[in-house]
């Protein structure tokens, strides 16, 4: 995870900082939230949500002071267009490594496996799927960590997930791994 640049636009950093983002533990968004917290250099905590929409509502209600959103998120325009919110920071960060993972005890995978993925990184499936496999059904889940959890529970054959999520759920990678160079937006209440 490399921080490649940071722009602060608004100083709305209150004494009690609560940063919200996409969870569960193991997401790239969680890593980005930790980076924001280290940059703020004050007492803070991270709250993880099942969806960015939930974090959005919590920011609007005042339960959060900041929300970190990946710019690959297809509905990020909701944050930008909401006049009750303001863009406070923008930064570039390489995500943790992404790859395709399976349960460690899983043998005899189908040549056309069912793959769980968050919608945003789905194009990586074709890039990372090892030879001998073909892209079959890709099932959308709320996060790459949710994808790892679903595979650990036996719901799907494979997950497009991150190293932290794979480790958390005891999965092993069957593909090469790569980061995503991502722009992240931080929103606060106006």
From TrEMBL:
Question: Which InterPro entries does the record match to this protein?
Answer: Preph_deHydtase
Prephenate dehydratase domain location, by residue? 18-190
Please give the Gene3D superfamilies that the UniProt record associates with this protein. Periplasmic binding protein-like II
Which Gene Ontology MF annotations are present?
prephenate dehydratase activity
Q: Which domain of life is it from?
A: Bacteria
The GO biological-process annotations, alphabetized, read as: L-phenylalanine biosynthetic process
State the name under which the record lists this protein.
Answer: Prephenate dehydratase domain-containing protein
